[in-house]
Specification:
The complex is a heterotrimer.
Chain A lengths: L13 H29 L15 H8 L1 H33 L5 H9 L6 H12 L5 H7 L16 H26 L3 H9 L4 H12 L1 H17 L2 H6 L11 H11 L3 H25 L5
Helix pairs in contact in A: 1-13, 2-13, 3-7, 3-10, 5-7, 7-10, 10-13, 12-13
Chain B lengths: L1 H33 L2 H6 L12 H9 L10 H31 L5 H11 L8 H10 L6 H24 L4 H9 L4 H9 L4 H16 L3 H6 L7 H9 L8 H33 L4
Helix pairs in contact in B: 1-13, 3-13, 4-7, 4-10, 4-12, 5-7, 7-10, 10-13, 12-13
Chain C lengths: L39 E7 L4 H16 L2 E7 L3 H13 L6 E5 L2 H8 L7 H7 L1 H4 L2 H7 E2 L2 E2 L1 E8 L2 E4 L1 H7 L7 H13 L3 E3 L5 H26 L3 H5 L1 H12 L13 H10 L2 E6 L4 H6 L9 E4 L7 E9 L6 H14 L2 H11 L15 H10 L5 E3 L1 H4 L2 H16 L5 H11 L4
Parallel strand pairs in C: 1-2, 1-3, 8-9, 11-12
Antiparallel strand pairs in C: 3-11, 4-5, 6-11, 7-9, 7-10
The chains are: A mainly alpha, B mainly alpha, C alpha/beta.
Chain lengths: ~290, ~280, ~425
Amino acid sequence: MRRRSHPRWLPRSFAAKLALLPTSLAMAACFYGCLVWTLVISVSASKLLPNYGFIGLMNYRRLFAGLRWETAYSNLFCFGAAFILISLLLGVALAIVLDRNLRAEGLFRGIFLYPLSMSFIVTGLAWQWFLNPTLGLQQFVRGMGLRHFTFDWIVDQDRALYAVAIAAAWHAAGLVMALTLASLRGIDPSVWSATRVDRVHPIRVYWHIVLPMIRPAIFTCIVLLTEIVVKSYDIMIAMTGGGPGGATDLPSLFIVDFSFHRASLGVAAAGAVVLVASVIAALAPLLYLSRKPP
Amino acid sequence: MNGARIGRVGLYVFAVSAALFFLIPLYVMLATSLKSLVEIRAGSIFSLPVAPSLRAWSDAWSSACTGIACDGISPGFWNSVKITVPSVVLSVAIGAVNGFALSMWRIRGARLFLGLLMAGTFIPYQIILYPLVKLVSAIGLFSSLPGVVFVQVIFGLPILTLLFYGYYGSIPMDILSAARIDGGGFWSIFRHVILPMSPGMIAVAVILQFTGVWNDFLFGLIFAGRDHLPMTVQLNNLVNKSYGEMEYNVNMAATVLTALPTLLVYAVSGNYFARGIAAGAMKG
Amino acid sequence: MFSLKCAIDCAGSVLRGSAVVASLSLLLFAGRCAAASDPLPVEVIHFWTSESEARALQVLAKALEQRHGRWIDSPIVGSDAATSVALNRINGGDPPAAMLWELGNRVTALADADMLNDMDSLAAQGRWAAVLSPLVMQHAVFGGHFIAVPVEIHGENWLWFNPQVLREAQVPIPTHWSEFFAVGDKLRAHGVVPLALGGQDWQEVMLFNTVMLDVGGAQLYRDFYIRHDRNAARGAAMQQALETFARLRRYVDPGSPGRSWNQATQMVITGRAAMQIMGDWAKREFTRAGLTAGNGFGCTLAPGSSHNYILAVDGFAFPKTTDPRKRAAQDLLAGIVMDPAVQIAFNQAKGSVPVRRDIALADLDACGQIGARVMADPGSQLPNPALALDSDGEGAVGDVIARFWFTPAMSPSRAAALLADAIAYQ
């Protein structure tokens, strides 16, 4: 479907522009105004409350010299990569499976989608309970006889992050599945009949033909999943509270902690700026690559 | 044909295993909420409740302590409804209008606008709390129901606008031209031509926004004020209480109760959702 | 391009615990008959949501009522969430009449930002300076003004234990951490967790502080926390304290990360664990379970700290307001809090120590008596991290200790160096 993007084709309307005004104002003020404010605060001497004395890059220096930011920032990438990878693989696999016309497809789809309806707090609480070494899965399997079974990722400094990634992927895989399935269903059936005629093995069909065709959907998923990663706070707090010794710390937790509990608004703002800049830097090439020709 | 059959069976095996993976946490929540504390401590998480009882559920709903008050999480339920319904109605309406304006009328800088909207959704809420509070109180809405609705609407607009933009983008121009020839202006075309064509997308938008607002915690906590705290806040209080033993069954019951409305919405309109995504999601 | 919203998108953030309840504050001053029909509302934001804490607050509420005031309760679960909410309320122009907080860096930060009303006139009237200990005075006063009214004192270096478990394992109560290891080994052999710990930053710091006190003495504690001496932080004594602290890892069960303090106390109550290092607010968990001091549970000062008392002081702070009714409400509450009769009733209900030195609690149980004895000597009083460091430093120290606790590979010398960095900005 050709995008109606060429302005020559579109009629003018003052009413249309007016209709957009409230949203524009709100965006300008709430998103971008606040972002600029954060930038200003990051170079100010703000402690508990905003204080507009300029102190240059001091907050940034403190940010990078401290113990927590380094961990939180690298956790963002580890967690992000793990979460996006698992969600994508699982979601795409589920979509492919569902695309093959299974029986009770509606039921399966419902089962894969329902976690999306639960808040992250609920997800985090349920999984924390499930992964608790003394009460959850580990205890269960040990009770069944495998006395040395361990699955204590959630209290393990090196693995807690991946435990949370699994829980988050459980939540978000349905979204990937829905988007990918829609895209798969949009593929011209003649593609399939052609490959059947040529007797191409299904796996090769998927790998060489189908996946490239659903690239836009995958890109959309990656962007949406990245959004979730950047905003993850609830699930981390609900599952590990920042983890054994800061192992599951994230920039969002860092920012909240430093803004409110450590009376270091300036450092928190510096962290926020670095976070937003990183996200833009990471996504810009992706967005550029995924632009369809007009 | 053997290979194909094995392949088929393999597909089902995979689907069923995945379904188990997705269902297990729900099962654990439900089973735990039906057990007594003694049974929870003694038994394993997967065991079926020996003497299932709804006591934890009634406790969670009406008598568990969330702070000093011990009224369960039911007070939060109506607050959540009062916050969610207006937020959804307003944001879907405004999002639809925005999408219509951007996709069917000549607006200079429309793509830039959309890009900025999209970028805006990446900003984590935590960092803009301070200025946001100042802003909302400057317009006199802090600590009130209209205040939290305002904030929810604002933060829901980017995605909803994009959603409707994509959907309306697939409507052929001829329809619009015909309507204009008939003398329609922006609003009359919207009301008489576009709206009747949008129920699918509206359903998707409503589902998404409902889920998002119902599950929100931060904005409800900060902006709603003492008398309008949503259910998510109550749930958090309940689960994080700082004394006594952790009552897992009540916690799980409260968790499911909080998740129930959105679960129901998905159960009832899951098909809409999937179809709506198919219709609108892949445009642009 | 991206036209689908994540349901997750607006899920918002979870601030630990919370139930904000904003309220109006009515004011009524005792003796004033002008608007005599309406009691003066005093809205208080606090995070004391357990039953015993609520009972203590009832004492204040009743005293308010007797003086024609009305207590309006705004409880928020979790002190961190309470901080955030209170700050945002002040920010949003709708401050409560009073906030109940731990005295120390949080209150000082507010005073520094000129966000608090002072109670100087009341303080002069009631001669508070004469009845408060120097340490408390130090933190109730900022820049020469009385900016917080203390209501109670808690001690942080207590050892709580299950006497039956110790009896069955035939182990004595350790009086120094060096003795603990043998005791711990026997307890482990007996199948009990020797030390119940909740794996949260502040709990680990609390434990570490008692080790620091034992190994380096009050001198090291004062050098580190009060004088912010970086050399002391890096020095041999501190490293030895860290080493002793590290050895305790073996005696804590693997499920401890993330556990809250009251769940750790439950472990001691049920006999799953033998001992816990926790402040004296833990007592109410035991009494709630129907146990009595000496019988179902035991209390003593932490190993190696029998002559020192690490204090935590709680009190009320009053956000700046020019509204005369709110101001009157604040004065009313402040006056009540420092009233001797109210102090006695309150602290008895709460199980804490009164801030006024000129009153004595009767009917103290065994634990209360220990506390009273140690408190009698002002020289033994030490500030807890919240009192001694600013929020940033307190947090930084917590980061280091928590990181060290969970990272066996980190050497004590590295941790000591990090501790020195943590207090660098004090």
